[in-house]
Design a protein that fits this description.
mainly beta; 16 strands; about 325 residues; 4-stranded mixed sheet; 4 helices
Length: about 325
């Protein structure tokens, strides 16, 4: 666990989230990390507050003072030859890693055009400055909030060995991918605390009459937690990141300087959040209509300043509970 992580004695668990629900009815807030999981204090409503219980983030800050943090591109361990034995972890790997035929016609394999990329990633507890100067406990893929950005080609499989270094069950879902059930982030296909799962992402497209249908090519996707009963809180607490794939047409445009590549291809996530007085994230586990935060950020922190010196290409994702 990194040095700036929250105390391990206060590890959040799925059972704690559910058990805290009764207390949250009276208290109205749920922090989830740190010493005070449920705050019983009432605060004066802020003039710009738009939440549903009369309270809001009490901290103040000067907007447009912090440079936007662009999540780094996740670097592979290797391409082609595996750096570890596939499936040699507690939760294993999808059987489709070994059998790449399609169900409709076992004589055909699904579309694959590039050698496999191999990664390792950890889910950690850490802290982050959503408001400058305020340390907020969060979850993070590789300890980052938002998580690192994955980039790959259509037809290039990936194996991401994902270790859960937190005290609660996790399940990673690649939103928009064509992937085996084992790797699709089903709510109870957990990565248990202290365990690992080899997520096998095919990055493929459907076959139409045996021919790849590139009209179904994945493009701007995102990965996020999908664990049973606590998906909303885990994503609210930081477990989300970009997953970008590029087909041959798009790569041709990039290579011919028609559309920009790094560092001018910028993934931007728009989020709203709300904090308690102690800096923890506000969360009401019994409000299934979602939460409207009173902090809106383009990237993190909330006081983000974006300065464009050249015309960029922007990939955007809204990460708000009500939208």
């Amino acid at each position: 666990m990194p040095a700036n992580s929250s105390s391990s004695s206060d590890d959040i668990s799925r059972r704690k989230v559910i058990a805290t629900g009764a207390a949250a009815v009276a208290a109205g807030v749920f922090a989830g990390f740190g010493d005070s999981a449920v705050s019983k204090s009432k605060r004066k409503r802020k003039s710009k507050d738009n939440d549903n219980d009369g309270n809001g983030t009490p901290q103040s800050f000067e907007p447009f003072t912090q440079p936007m943090a662009v999540p780094p591109v996740k670097q592979e361990l290797s391409i082609g030859a595996p750096p570890f034995t596939p499936g040699d972890v507690f939760h294993g790997i999808a059987p489709e890693f070994y059998d790449r035929s399609i169900a409709e016609d076992p004589s055909l394999n699904w579309y694959e055009a590039h050698p496999t990329k191999w990664y390792e990633m950890e889910i950690r507890e850490t802290t982050h400055e959503i408001i400058p100067g305020v340390q907020t406990p969060v979850f993070g893929y590789d300890g980052m909030y938002p998580g690192p950005t994955f980039k790959s080609r259509v037809g290039q499989p990936m194996v991401v060995r994902t270790r859960n270094m937190t005290g609660t069950e996790m399940s990673v879902h690649l939103h928009g991918g064509h992937n085996p059930a084992h790797s699709d982030g089903y709510p109870n296909f957990f990565v248990l605390p202290g365990r690992a799962r080899d997520y096998f992402y095919t990055n493929t497209v459907p076959l139409e009459g045996g021919i790849p249908d590139f009209g179904e090519s994945p493009s701007t996707m995102w990965y996020h937690d999908h664990a049973m009963d606590i998906t909303a809180f885990n994503v609210w607490a930081g477990l989300a990141g970009f997953f970008l794939t590029f087909n041959d047409i798009e790569m041709g445009l990039i290579n011919n300087n028609v559309i920009p590549d790094d560092p001018y291809d910028i993934p931007i996530v728009v989020q709203d959040r709300r904090l308690n007085a102690d800096g923890t994230l506000f969360f009401d586990p019994l409000d299934h209509n979602g939460t409207l935060g009173d902090l809106t950020s383009v990237g993190i922190p909330a006081a983000t300043l974006i300065e464009f010196r050249d015309v960029p290409r922007i990939s955007s994702r809204t990460s708000c509970r009500m939208r």
